[in-house]
Write a structure and sequence with these properties.
The chain is of the alpha/beta class. It has two domains: 183 residues, 3-Layer(aba) Sandwich (Rossmann fold); 169 residues, Rossmann fold (3-Layer(aba) Sandwich). Helix content is 36%, strand content 16%. The chain contains 15 helices and 15 strands. The strands form two sheets. The protein has an eight-stranded mixed beta sheet with strand order 3-2-1-4-5-6-14-15, sandwiched between helices. Helix 6 crosses helix 7 and helix 11 crosses helix 12.
């Protein structure tokens, strides 16, 4: 199979779909890879690094899209990239379609086969291609939040860990999944007073067993949310409903009642955000203020640490890349039900129910479009 890796063009996005090591692995399985010039510079890899493992270099994204049978990216295709997709071409990347009807329409119109990293599942029921970036984003949420709490950034002027004789900042993490666990780990390490809210007793027990008394676990109710959000210095939103828009758990009224200089970090912003006052921002302009509360809502947080996040992502995606390229997408999707969960758009049909329902498309199951008898 001919595989294409374009340079990412989203604001301050420095990750790349395949590292030179991954390209070498793909080529060793008998495939060809074309990489847009400069695609690896953000992770410290030159065109020559790709050439040395057998890739060819394209001067433009147009060349990549025209020649490749499968496009491998990191972030969702931007409008100019979506216009280059063609019928029966495979797109393998993060999509986050639920809050992005324009992208959905363009992908439907393209006739391409679009597989989203974030809805591929595992035997254990997890999301193995989302997890590495959730780990990075969870850890970064505390770094970003701590910075925003500084007075020079408009924050309260609190140090997360405090000092002897001065209380630490209160960090409230909504959602105890991968994002929440890694955010808690970082916040505990910095000495903060850490509270995690979740609606799963299993998750809360797991956090208790892992962190012990270093973290306070709370069953999430409307009353508990309001109580802890209003008393927080930093709130991290890490709630996920796979494939669907994130629930708006922190209301505008709650934000209005928070102390001035408090900070909200919305890690769920790719799926629309879990704070009612959130809207997506960029690394170039990461924050905005509502009712004197600082909001950090960067939609590609891991893009700021591209070396860590690219290699972590490739560790997870490479087996699926090899499976699709070696079997062809049709057989790979038929054989692997976990990869099949990643199918979001198939030749003009929406194959993920949450997106179809919220955006008004007719839903077609992956099994239907692939001709699998249930």
């Amino acid at each position: 199979m001919y595989i294409g890796v374009p340079r990412e063009i989203k604001n301050n996005e420095f990750r790349v779909g395949l590292t030179p090591g991954s390209v070498r692995e793909v080529i060793s399985h008998g495939h060809q890879v074309i990489v847009e010039t400069g695609a690896g510079l953000g992770i410290g890899k030159s065109d020559q690094d790709y050439i040395s493992v057998g890739a060819s270099i394209a001067q433009t994204a147009v060349d990549v899209f025209q020649q490749a049978e499968m496009i491998i990216k990191v972030k969702e295709p931007q409008a100019v990239e979506r216009a280059m997709l063609r019928a029966d071409q495979i797109l393998f990347t993060y999509l986050h379609l639920a809050p992005d009807p324009k992208q959905t329409k363009d992908l439907v119109d393209s006739g391409a086969v679009c597989i989203a990293y974030e809805t591929v599942t595992s035997v254990s029921g997890g999301l193995p291609l989302l997890a590495p970036m959730s780990e990075v984003a969870g850890r970064m949420s505390i770094q970003a939040g701590a910075h925003c709490l500084e007075r020079s950034q408009g924050g309260k002027g609190k140090l997360l860990g405090g000092v002897p004789g001065v209380a630490p900042a209160k960090v409230v993490i909504i959602g105890g999944g991968v994002v929440g666990r890694h955010a808690a780990d970082m916040a505990i390490g910095l000495g903060a007073d850490v509270w995690v809210l979740d609606r799963s007793n299993v998750v809360l027990k797991s956090l208790w067993e892992h962190f012990g008394r270093s973290v306070h676990t709370v069953f999430s109710t409307q009353e508990a949310l309001e109580q802890h959000v209003l008393s927080a210095d930093l709130v991290v939103g890490g709630v996920l409903i796979p494939g669907a828009s994130a629930p708006k758990l922190v209301t505008a009224d709650m934000v209005a009642k928070m102390e001035a200089g408090s900070v909200l970090v919305d890690v769920a912003i790719d799926q629309g955000g879990c704070f009612e006052t959130s809207h997506a921002t960029t690394h170039a302009d990461p924050t905005f203020v509502v009712n004197n509360v600082i909001h950090y809502c960067v939609a590609n947080m891991p893009g700021a640490v591209p070396q860590t996040s690219t290699f972590a992502l490739n560790n997870a995606t490479l087996p699926f890349v090899l499976e699709i390229s070696s079997k062809g997408y049709q057989q790979a999707l038929i054989d692997n039900p976990h990869l099949r969960h990643g199918l979001n758009v198939y030749k003009g049909k929406v194959t993920i129910k949450e997106v179809a329902d919220i955006q008004g498309y007719e839903y077609h199951s992956a099994e239907q479009v692939l001709g699998i008898n249930s």
